[in-house]
């Protein structure tokens, strides 16, 4: 039987809490073993030596010997991976896939226009290193947020209207909003088109 997967995202420096489902364990619990991939994280054995916390998880990991709950603080990028737990030497069917990522920084908007400045591309600029996956949203004036791409094309027409744009970047652990940008063109009508970034 294939394992049930739980995909988890946590911020670098944050805390992870894994609560296993013991409902399939019918006998009294005498041993618990958590693994990160193939490496041991925490092991408790009622009959042989109590509780051991291993290697890089020392000093920041606790194991509840009754519930099997595992807590890891001060999360690092290297803590990313698959976690599994055994009760009484039997592997539970559920595993946990952890991704430890950074919070997104505040984005800035840059613009690039054609020579006659009738069409401009706005780009939501930010360093996404170790912060993926990220999504982008844009807001025009006082309008609603729209989930779009990193770049927007803005076109100027003959009628008079000016507005401001704001971009927002979000990942599973955080979000940040840029300062607004306006007056990319001289006053005129702006229309918004989606740009697909390949």
UniProtKB/TrEMBL annotation:
Question: What keywords are assigned to this protein?
Answer: Glycoprotein, Membrane, Signal
| Protein's cellular compartments | Membrane
Give the main location. Answer: membrane
State the superkingdom. Answer: Eukaryota
> Which SUPFAM superfamilies does this entry report, sorted A to Z?
Immunoglobulin (SSF48726)
* Matching InterPro entries: CD2/SLAM_rcpt, Ig-like_dom, Ig-like_dom_sf, Ig-like_fold
**Which part of the chain is the Ig-like domain?**
105-178
Gene Ontology CC terms: membrane
Protein name stated in the entry:
Ig-like domain-containing protein
Query: Native species of this protein?
Result: Oncorhynchus mykiss
